[in-house]
Amino acid sequence: MTKLFISHIINSANKEGGIILINLSKFLSSNDLSLNINEIFQIEDKNFLEKTHLDNNIYFKGSFFKVEDDVLLNGIVKYTYSEECARCLTEFNNAIETKFEAVVVNYLENKEASNEIKLVLNEGCVELEETIKQLIYLSMPMKALCKEDCKGICPTCGANLNNEKCKCDNNLTDPRFDKLKDLLND
Ligand SMILES: [Zn+2]
Ligand SMILES: [Zn+2]
Predict the structure, then answer these.
(1) Most exposed of 88, 130, 169, 179 (fewest Cβ within 10 Å)?
(2) Residue 169 vs residues 10, 37, 88, 155, 162: alpha-carbon distances, Å
(3) Which strands, in side-by-side order, build the sheet including 117-120?
(4) Which ligand is nearest to the CA of 167?
(5) How far, in Å, from the CA of 147 to the mean position of ligand 2?
(6) CA 152 / ligand 1 centre spacing (Å)
């Protein structure tokens, strides 16, 4: 899909609010069964960016499908944010990818308890920013490691054990377990 076409269907209706609008009217009135979107967009909500330490370039890839009377969206959101490693406390950029599905609806029905993500069609457009912000919140890990085998920091001297070896004796095992080992070995 060419860049030109993309900028035609996605437009930042309100630069201040950074609203991400996707215009589906052409797709809906066509005989096409699917519409693919592949775009990098910016979240400009400063509050959100500060809270999440998010890089404001968000990669969005999605396909809208006509399925009988419904229009469904299969999407992937990729983002990076700066995080402190839970083990070595080093700042690093954590890249997250999260998949989601949504249904395009004409209006929201009251009292409808469902986990489905709904995108309300408004003058042929759907707005994605709120949905994407929620997905980002939900997919951010509570704890993250700079790498899977991060060695952490030495509890005695504070050395980053990924970069250096220290000479501290950090044998913190409970002596009772040593006794148990001896018993098991006997
Ligand atoms: Zn680390
Ligand atoms: Zn040490």
Answers:
(1) 169
(2) 59, 55, 18, 10, 17
(3) 34-42, 57-67, 70-84, 91-105, 117-120
(4) 2
(5) 20
(6) 6
Please write the tens of the pLDDT for every residue from 25-48: 999 999 999 999 998 988 888 899
| Residue 179 pLDDT class (50, 70, 90 cuts) | confident
Q: How far is the CA of 87 from the centre of ligand 1 (A)?
A: 5
How much distance in Å is there from the Cα of 85 to the middle of ligand 1?
A: 5
C-alpha separations of 24 from 127, 128, 154 in Å: 11, 12, 55
Closest CA to 130 of 108, 145, 147, 159: 108
Q: Which ligand is closest to the CA of 162, given by its number?
A: 1
Q: 7 falls in which pLDDT band (50, 70, 90)?
A: very low
Q: Determine whether 182 is exposed, middle or buried from the number of CB atoms within 10 Å of its CB (0-12, 13-18, 19+).
A: exposed
- Distances in Å between the Cα of 152 and the Cα atoms of 49, 147, 165 are 28, 10, 11
pTM: 0.75
Q: Residue 175 Cα, ligand 2 centroid: separation in angstroms?
A: 21
